[in-house]
Amino acid sequence: MPRAARFIETNGFYHIISRSLNETRILRDDDDFCHFFKLAHTAKQKYPIRIFHYVVMNTHFHLAAQAPYHKILSQHIAYLKWHYTMWMRKKYAWRGPLW
After folding, report:
1. pLDDT tens, 34-71?
2. Are strands 50-56 and 12-19 parallel, antiparallel or unpaired?
């Protein structure tokens, strides 16, 4: 049975965690981290959320953020994760899901 969608409140504050599958090291070197931060910057320009704090590690990331309306939060995270997945597929010939 699928779980119910989360309720996203207008101007709500959220702690977002996204982990790789099976604790795979998806951020492996400085280029990966640089590319991830460039994507995060682009995602913030396209889908402006307020980010108060972040932690990016080899296997996952955390964001403390505020979303001005409900769709923008999911669009922001989807953009970041999809484009980073494409980076992994190209750079490391990754196959299958990443997150």
Report:
1. 999 999 999 999 999 999 999 999 999 999 999 888 78
2. unpaired
Instruction: Transcribe 6-60 into DSSP letters.
Output: PP--TTEEEEEEEE-GGG-----SHHHHHHHHHHHHHHHHHS--EEEEEEE-SSE
Q: CA-CA distance, 55 to 49, in Å (whole number)?
A: 16
On whether the CB atoms of residues 38 and 14 are closer than 8 A, the answer is no
Query: Sign (positive/negative) of CA torsion 33, 37, 42, 46?
Result: positive
Structure tokens belonging to residue 54: 């972040």
CA 63 – CA 17 distance, rounded (Å): 7
Q: Which residue has the tokens 């995602």?
A: 43
User: Two tokens at 53?
Assistant: 């704090």
pTM (predicted TM-score): 0.87
Q: What angle do CA 89, 21, 1 make, to 5 degrees?
A: 120
